[in-house]
Amino acid sequence: MSGLDATTFDALVEQAASLLPRLEERGLTLATCESLTGGLLAAVLTSVPGASRVYRGSVVTYASDLKASLVGVDAEHIAEHGVINPETAAQMALGARELLGTSLALACTGVAGPEPQDGQPPGTVWVALAGPNKGQVRVEHLPLDGDRTQIRCDTCGALLDAVHELLGNSTGESGT
């Protein structure tokens, strides 16, 4: 397992730095609900000076039961389907937006590896963006390759890209 190198982290921070002023210009605020990234996206966002003008905070729901108790993912859904699926990602994003009182919320659930989880192989990731309209949520499946660190970084990059796309402009993609 390789560690996160400064170049990769800095590329993600650059991607976030190009996003946050765009959110501020539109009067939007952002929250995150992270599982497989374990707070990495929050670290990226808060590395940008002035992030607090739009970024309200994060909930790291690494354990399955926390997805239900903290952000309101349906416990019966978790019991029946596990947490690596689009519905869980959507509920995480909607719950984080509500809990943290923001315009937008990003969420991710998946398997960083190296072992499978809920019958899903490493690299199976679902990301969600809850938009500013009640009930508005976009979910995307990311079939990622690489080691644990690469999967986590690619997930963060994809989430930042999703907000860029929502705002209707090029992504500032990090290429991680």
Q: Which shape, going by the Cα principal axes?
A: globular
Count of extended strands:
5
The helix-strand sequence is: HEHEHHHEEEH
Uncertain runs are 170-176
Please describe the structure with a list of short key phrases separated by commas or semicolons.
disordered C terminus; 5 strands; globular; 176 residues
Give an overview in words.
α1 (6-25) packs parallel to α6 (148-166). The two termini are 16 Å apart. Residues 170-176 have low confidence and may be disordered. The chain has 176 residues and is an alpha/beta fold. It has a five-stranded mixed β-sheet with strand order 2-1-3-4-5, sandwiched between helices. The chain has six helices and five strands; from the N terminus they run αβαβαααβββα. The radius of gyration is 15 Å and the shape is globular. It has helices spanning 6-25, 40-46, 64-71, 75-81, 86-100, 148-166, and strands spanning 30-34, 55-60, 104-110, 124-130, 137-143. β1, α2 (40-46) and β2 form a beta-alpha-beta unit. Helix content is 43%, strand content 18%.
Summarize the structure.
The protein is built from six helices and five strands. With about 180 residues, the chain is an alpha/beta fold. The radius of gyration is 15 Å and the shape is globular.
